[in-house]
Each structure stands twice: as structure tokens, then as C-alpha cells.
């Protein structure tokens, strides 16, 4: 079964109509029908069944489509790579979870672009599950996540550890404290990241261990908004220490915020990952090394570096 035949089956499965699929494939419907009959004859299985006006995949057809999808995605990536080579463009496809779309990321990308103007960096913001799929399919070259990607087909290039801390405004009664525990935060209003992030669960677990449920005032995936809310009102915000610092550094209106350590400190992590066995271009290799160097400076401890 060749790539053209695979694309025929995939398109029919997507549109559920031979006529619509034929239009998208730029062939006639009779030609497409003939091609499908030949494929079914060669494989010895029935791929589609008629349900009303639609052509629905059989159970065997569903299995086949799941098998050919990665092949078609990989080939598309290959064709895109050829186009890059033909146009002499240098590209890095960088995937990052929303939680790490921070001033650090913005400042790093801005500096990288200034230093290497010929290298185009495509930034893909997505959840970790989506980034894993894109990394394995070759749609992205690098992923930055807060959890290690558990797959034998990926390699961690560098990893970092830091402390989780509390940000408070100058009107907060904790402002002059040198450290706090979760028990000290019981009466305070929490401005917190959205559920699903590792940090969210760390905060909830820390509060529960201290014997209370946190009073949540504002919840968002946008770290800057959480800190602005904390600075303007009498609440607290628990985040990775460098994340608070980077926001204060880039946003003058947050200069009154104070970073207070939590004891014992929950740990936060950052992982920079690439696909194992992939042919790493010099541009991707440069990007990996540069972002690692920046993270070494920004975080408390580098726990892994290849």
C-alpha cells in the first residue's frame, strides 16, 4: 500500500463521502472508487460500509486508518523539511506548555532572534499531551514542560529545579516575613493557576496537609494577570520563584511585590526535551544549548544537562 492509497483512505474516512473526498484529492469519483476496491482486494478486507448517505469505516478500516495516520504525518513533515532545504530557510519548531509562556520565554526568544536573525523559531503553545504527540510525529523539534515526558522515544536535553514561593503585595501582613509555611496562609485569598498544572495540585495538597481548603479569589493560566491581581489587592500568589522574579523584572508595576520562601519548599521543575534518534540540525542544537544556558542562569539548580 503506497502513500497515495493511504491518503485516499484517510480522506474518505475524514469526509465520509467518496464524492467529497474525490474533490479534495483532485481525482474523479469513479477513479477513487476503483482505487478503493483495488486496495480492499489487495488487503483482503472491507474498509468502508454504507450507512445512509455516508461511507463509514468498518472495524478493520478503523484499525488501518489509525496505523496509516502516523505515516502520513511523518511524510508531511518530511516534505516540509525538503521545502525548508529548497528555500534555504533555517527553522526551529519549539513547543511549550502554556504555564511556561512567561517573560523568561519571551525574553529568550527575543534575544535569540536578535542574535540569530536567519533562524526562524515557530512557537507552538499546547498541553503536554499534545506536545508529546507533536514531538513524536516530528511536528516540533523541542518541547519545554514541567514534567518529564515518559517515552522511550524522547531524550531529555536538560532539566532544572527551583523552589515554589509566595508573592505578596506591600499591603499584605506577610510582606516583611522572611519565610512562611502553608499553615500561615490559611486566612489569605489565593490567586492561583488553573487546575491541571502541576503547581495547582501542589498548592491544593499543601493547604490540605495544613488542614484547610484554600479560599480562591482569582484563577488564570496567565501568570502576569495573577501577579497584577495580587499586587493590587490583599491576596497571595504561589508560583515558581524565577517566574515571579522574571515578571517583576519585566513589569515595573509589579516592583512592590515581595517574594517569600515557603518552608518546607515545594519543588518545581522544567524539562527541555527532543526526539531520540532524530537528526538534530545545527539550528536545533544551537537552540537547545542556548535555552539551557539561559535556564542555568535563571533557575536555582540544573539537575541534568547532556
From TrEMBL:
Lineage: Bacteria, Bacillati, Bacillota, Clostridia, Eubacteriales
Domain of life: Bacteria
Bilayer-spanning residue ranges: none
Stretch forming the signal peptide: none
Family annotation (InterPro entries): HTH-type_LysR_regulators, LysR_HTH_N, LysR_subst-bd, WH-like_DNA-bd_sf, WH_DNA-bd_sf
UniProt key word DNA-binding: yes
PANTHER family membership: HTH-TYPE TRANSCRIPTIONAL REGULATOR YBHD (PTHR30419), NITROGEN ASSIMILATION TRANSCRIPTIONAL ACTIVATOR-RELATED (PTHR30419:SF8)
Similarity comment text for this entry: Belongs to the LysR transcriptional regulatory family.
Domain HTH lysR-type: 1-58
Protein name (record): LysR family transcriptional regulator
Keywords: DNA-binding, Transcription, Transcription regulation
